[in-house]
Write a structure and sequence with these properties.
It is a single chain. The protein is α+β, with helices and mostly antiparallel strands. The chain has 13 helices and 16 strands. Strands 10, 11, 12, 13 and 14 form a 5-stranded antiparallel beta sheet that branches. Helix 10 runs antiparallel to helix 11 and helix 10 packs parallel to helix 13.
Amino acid sequence: MPLKDFSVAVVGGGVCGLAAAYALSRAGPNAIRALEVLGLLQPLLSRVGPSELKTRFTKFISGSARHELIFDYETAMAHPEKHAGLGLHRAVFLDMLLDLLNPSTIHLQKRCIEIEPRDSGGVVISFADGSTYEADVVIGADGIRSVTRDFVIGQESPSPLVFTNTVAYRGLANHDELIRSGIQSDLGKGPLYFISPGKINLVAFASDHQKPLVPELPLPWVDSVSKEEVKNTFSECGPDTKILIDHLNMPNKWSIHACMPPLTSYVRGKVVLVGDAAHGMLPFLGAGAGQGIEDVVLLTELLAHAQTRKDNIKDVLAVYDIVRPPRANYVLEASTRAGQIYGDTNPVQDDFCKMARQLERIWGHDIGEDVVACIQMLCDRGIFASNTSE
């Protein structure tokens, strides 16, 4: 993009942070459209072969002995004219982003410990190694345990980060051994991820919706567990579940945290949040990273706009803050509702139909329309001279 009269620092090296850095350097489902806007989709597709790229399908099968199909939601095959939802290994995505960035702009092994505005108008980022950096705008992409979020909400405000009473048991299982065990589940179709030759990544969620939410747990949030604990947690499930657990190798337990209640604002001054820092959510719709990419698209399109200058940055960020929280917070709350359906031992067809309608609202969103709406809003407020990016 053309040189600007302001500087931007991105705190965080995950998907959202690297995507924001790339978008600023160059100035399907909703996430696929967003990747297209950022110019990242084709570089990503060029790096993975057909065997590594999975079209998303969602099947809900009873965990009881009856092993009955409850609901089948197909995204790509039902609408082949639309973008398919694509799944691939996170490391592939991150490696692609890193390769696209100028190495001189990336500083790894840094941990942000404080954000402090200066009277001059800049914002100083302090790191654990004693170094500091000053920028005109700071994008907080530092994840669920965000330090930039602490600044945005204010030190006097209680942290929105809570333990959701949901844990994820994870581990690897040998594909061939599962087949020989007589498992009924079809391991040959759908979004299966073979992490290493012959290994399948298994994830099993357990939630207790009767317990009240509690503040974040002490670290670590990931612990090794015995296979017996996993068996006891799913003791009422059917034979396929028990077979999967029997073949689980070195399981661990992840304590899932989220921002609840959702933040009403993602901006304070010239510090703006994206991704999990803004709206860390439960994983039950697979939409968290997609919302982070939507954040990045809208924010970077506005910052890269020809009429965005150092003297109107706060006005531009204020418009971002009008549009993004309602959208991302809806997805956060929908993910929570989906988790309640997942954990129901007696779900009904109508529950899944409602969830499918939520997915349509989430996946059918066009972030490009939000960009246009924000630019028009800035024009209407007299911040931009006309509705143009020229």
